[in-house]
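Question (not urgent): is this output format expected?
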Amino acid sequence: MSRPKRAVILLSGGLDSATVLAEASGMGFEIYALTVLYGQRHEIESAAANRVAKAFGVARHVEQRIDLRAFGGSALTDDIGVPKDRDEAEMADGIPITYVPARNTIFLSLALAWAETLGAFDIFVGVNCVDYSGYPDCRPEYLRAFENLANLATKAGVEGSGRFQIHAPLLTMTKDQIIARGMKLGVDYGLTHSCYDPTPAGGSCGRCDSCRLRLAAFEKLGLKDPILYVVD
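Got this back:
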């Protein structure tokens, strides 16, 4: 009996990455989950990533620490306030201050390095270009470019032992569609965390862009978000 194909999943502990992990698992991949702790103010998502990885019984879960606070430049890695109470028009206006310079390039590079050592050619990431994300490294053209890079810049790619693929199954889905899909796949969203500015105890603010998009999606589905919110 042949061994199942391996895949590396970027797992933040958020709603999207948990859904992507469930997608890869449902496709029959043996899951290797990678969580990057990059100095973000919401490092409490590490606990959420561990909960999700455990729930799905991944083959291995690695936490990699890289301190991007040394560079700053983002409300997630610097002493810059996280935007609160923004409406849809404001969220859609330009690149938000919660953008972390080159974050997805760093994450995907780490995932690629691990995938090559594992003999895995499938990398899954929970990026999304709908719902006012505004992030330049969540666009389909960026993912295609990174996939080309992966096959140009690796021993496996040059020798032709396989072709790397970057999977972004949520790319064009709305947040409510993502939740609906995840529930069909058995995701327990009570295990996840999405807030950009949580309390020290892990309560979600309910007011940052991430919280507002998440809450609106659950409301659209007629469901109650199972995580804890502490609204000022």
